[in-house]
Each structure stands twice: as C-alpha cells, then as structure tokens.
Amino acid sequence: MVGKKSPLKTIGFYLLVIALVIFVGYPFAWMISISFRYDSDAFDHGIIPEKPTLTQYKQLLGFEQSLRDQLSTEAEQFLKLIEDLPKEQQEEILKQKGLLKSEASFPFIRFFRNSLFLAGLSALATLIVAVLGAYSFSRLRYSGRAFLQRGVLVVYLFGGTILAVPLYQIFVKAGLTGNGPKSFLALFIIYVVQTLPVSLYMLGNYFRTIPYSIEEAAIIDGCSRIQTIFRIVIPLSLPAIITVYIYAFMIAWNEYLFASIFVRPYPNFYTLPIGLNELFYSEHAIWGKMMAASVLTAVPIIIMFTVMEKYLTSGLTIGAVKE
Asked: Which CATH number fits domain 108-317: 3.40.50.1220, 1.10.3720.10, 3.90.920.20, 3.10.310.10?
C-alpha cells in the first residue's frame, strides 16, 4: 500500500523545484533582456526593458550599421578634404576627430556560418561512421572485436589539453596546417574523432535491442547486409541516431580549445566560440551586442532540442539497459 504524501513535503518539493528553475533560468532571462536594450540602458534596473529595441540583432545580422561603421564612412568623406597632406598628418587628424576607419563590423554571420557548416558536417560524418561501426560491434563476430569495442573509449581517458600539442604536431607533419582551409579540415577530423567513441557506444547498445530475427528475415528475402542496415536497422533506430547527431553537433558547436589552436591565425575561418571571444575583447565589446550574440548562438541548439525532443528522450533511455 502506497502511503499518502505529507502536504508539507509536497509543498517543499515544489518550492525547491521553483527555486532551482529561478536559479538556472534567471541568468538567461537577464541575457535576453540586455540583448533587447540600447547600449546606454544595458544596466538599468528591472528585467523587462523600458525601451526595447532590436538594434543589437540588426547590427549583428547586417541589417543596420553601427555608429562606428557610420563614422568610418564619414572618415572616407573627410579624407578627401585633407588628401594633400602627408599620410602621417592625415592619420593624426582622423584620430583626433575619432574618424579613423577600423574594422567595419563584427562578422557574426560569417562565424555563425563557419560553425554551422563545421558542426553539421562533422556530426554527419560521425553518425555515418558510428552507424557502421556500432552495427559491426553489435552484430558481427570477428577476431579482436571486443578489444576494439573497449579500445575506442580509451580516448576519453585523456583530456583535451593533454592531446592538444601532440595533435597539432601530427597535423603539422601531415600538412594540415598553414592556411585556413587546411586548419578547418584538421578541426573537422578532430571533432569526428572526439565524438566517435560515445557515438559508437550509444548506437551499439541500441542496436542490441533490435531483434536479430527481423534482420534475418530481411536477409532471407534477399537483402544484403548493407541493405539490411539502411532498410531495417536505421529506420528502427531513429531515436538513437538523432540523439547521437545532436550530441556530436553540440560538441563541435561549443568547442573552443582546438579551434583556438588551429584557426586562430585565420579570422575568415573563426567559429562562433572564437568569434565571441574576440567580440568580448575587441572594440565591439558592448554588453547589448555581446548578449544578442550569445542568444543567437543558442538558437540552433534550442531549435534542435525542440524539434527532436520526442526522439531524443527515447534515444537516451532505450538501449541504456542490456537485458
């Protein structure tokens, strides 16, 4: 017989949940609030902006020029009036006027595009390799299978800071450094290797929950092993596959250490973590713009979780227990 819960325990439980939600959600609420404020109002009291604006988002997305950009344009016009003076005097006058042209704007769109391309492509590559590898571990019998299955997890015994220097030396000797595209390719390889072990483990456990008799029936009907994987195993494993993709995407989307090593010399190939770090320590370090950039950075992950929530929940639970 189940005992009746005490009202005090129930009230205490809900108060604890509410306190936890406030503790976790309050910083995010402030981040969103500041992103909708003018620079001069960033630290006004109250979580609801008195004069909400989309200026920060418009500037980040390129729909509106910032004041700094407008001054740079004005500097070009002013330069025509002093073009007969020596270059050193021209620069001095422009500095005094505050019109010396600097970086046009914070290239948020470029950083966003780089991260989206790199994270999406590396997560897809991880998923393809993980599906085939996990199926091999869970269904095929061959010499050394158990050793390989356990060996892939050895990667997680070493932290990223320990692997950074050896990996950099390996890619230098392999010729995958020296310019932006090569360094970008090096990051792609690192992200695949970094997310592959857990992906293999998760999918391998899930594949074992699928009755092998279904695959045998498909093989009897004339399907090859590859056809069985794509026609039977993958459709039945969508929850786990989507979970693995989101996991691999998030790792690559938020990764900072290796990106700061490989693409730091090449601004055109910055990912969002590197770009945001540059924003915080640059002339564009304005709280409203920084918070707007942080909000936009979180949008793809929020959308993925929202759209794939039902698959994600199922993928995290099914296959977790081996019967």
From this structure: 1.10.3720.10
Residue 21 CA: distances (Å) to CA of 25, 26, 139, 296: 6, 8, 43, 22
Q: What is the CA radius of gyration of the chain?
A: 26
pTM score of the predicted model: 0.77
Instruction: Kindly report, residue by residue over 82-106, the tens digit of the pLDDT.
Output: 656 665 566 666 566 555 544 445 7
pLDDT band with cut points at 50, 70 and 90 for residue 287: confident
Q: Cα–Cα distance between 130 and 134 in angstroms, integer?
A: 6
Place of tokens 């042209």: 101
CA distance 196 to 248: 8
Quote the pLDDT of residue 1: 46
Q: Kindly report, as residue ranges, where domains of CATH 1.10.3720.10 are found in the chain.
A: 108-317
